[in-house]
């Protein structure tokens, strides 16, 4: 399975637009090569370089098996679409919380899991709850790493202006498995 983003390449900088220095919105993601018996997907975004240990920035689970990507700017809150749920991040909020390194460059690792079940979890689940529920049900996984370092406010302002003018370059449509067009109605 492969995971990528049209907003940045693996092991390259995450645009400020998707960080706490910018608009703090989630980046668009796309994946391919999921096992045919995938029942749902789960996603965890973590910063392993945080000073007090691994910091979880985003938890999303019960993503329908027909989906092959996430839009830019997934709304903060419990639900994404009709089935996917968001968990509680290390900021203590439900939904996406973008990179916010206190100093230096940090790695932000998006891990997508293909699961053989739909999880029996409520919205707001913690990472530990998700990992426990997924145990023994992971068919495959893929990772995408983005980098981000705290920037000078003037540099961020210039970068955001450029990124906002390039927004149309991102494919903002929901991605789903086109071999199952009837399933699109269930999103």
Question: Would you summarize the structure shown here?
Answer:
The protein is built from two helices and ten strands, in the order βββββββββαβα. It is mainly beta and 187 residues long.
Plain-language structure description:
The protein is mainly beta. It has a single domain, classed as Phosphatidylethanolamine-binding Protein. It contains two helices and ten strands. The chain has helices spanning 127-134, 153-165; strands at 2-4, 12-13, 29-32, 40-47, 55-64, 69-70, 79-80, 84-86, 105-115, 138-149. A seven-stranded mixed β-sheet has the order 2-10-9-4-5-8-7, with helices on one face. A three-stranded antiparallel β-sheet has the order 1-3-6, with no helix packed on it. Strand 7 and strand 8 (84-86) form a beta hairpin. The longest helix has 13 residues, at 153-165. The protein starts with a strand and ends in a 22-residue tail after the last helix. The relative contact order is 0.25. Residues 181-187 have low confidence and may be disordered.
What attributes does this structure have?
single chain; 187 residues; mainly beta; Phosphatidylethanolamine-binding Protein; 7-stranded mixed sheet; 3-stranded antiparallel sheet; 2 helices; 11% helix; globular; disordered C terminus
- Helix-strand category: mainly beta
CATH class category: Alpha Beta
Low-confidence stretches: 181-187
Would you count the extended β strands for me?
Answer: 10
Counted by DSSP, the helix tally is 2
Architecture, CATH level 2? Alpha-Beta Complex
CATH third-tier fold name: Phosphatidylethanolamine-binding Protein
Report the end-to-end length measured between terminal Cα atoms. Answer: 22 Å
Tell me roughly what share of residues is in helical segments: 10-25%
**SSE run:** EEEEEEEEEHEH
The average pLDDT is 87
Biggest pleated sheet: 7 strands, mixed
Question: How many domains is the backbone divided into?
Answer: 1
The CATH homologous superfamily corresponds to PEBP-like
Rg on CA atoms, Å: 16 Å
Strand content: 25-35%
Q: Strands across the major sheet, in which order?
A: 2-10-9-4-5-8-7
Q: Quick one: overall form?
A: globular
């Amino acid at each position: 399975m492969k995971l990528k983003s049209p907003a940045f390449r693996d092991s390259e900088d995450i645009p400020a637009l998707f960080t706490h220095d910018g608009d703090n919105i989630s980046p668009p993601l796309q994946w391919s090569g999921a096992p045919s018996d995938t029942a749902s997907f789960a996603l965890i975004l973590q910063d392993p370089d945080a000073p007090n240990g691994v910091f979880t920035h985003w938890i999303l689970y019960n993503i329908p098996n027909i989906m092959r990507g996430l839009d830019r700017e997934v709304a903060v809150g419990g639900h994404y679409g009709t089935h996917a749920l968001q968990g509680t991040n290390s900021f203590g909020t439900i939904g996406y919380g973008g990179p916010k390194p206190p100093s230096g460059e940090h790695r932000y690792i998006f891990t997508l899991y293909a699961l053989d079940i739909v999880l029996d979890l409520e919205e707001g689940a913690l990472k530990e709850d998700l990992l426990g529920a997924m145990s023994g049900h992971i068919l495959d996984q893929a990772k995408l790493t983005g980098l981000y370092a705290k920037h000078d406010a003037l540099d961020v302002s210039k970068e955001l202006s450029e990124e906002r003018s390039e927004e149309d370059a991102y494919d903002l449509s929901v991605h789903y498995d086109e071999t199952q067009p009837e399933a699109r109605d269930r999103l």
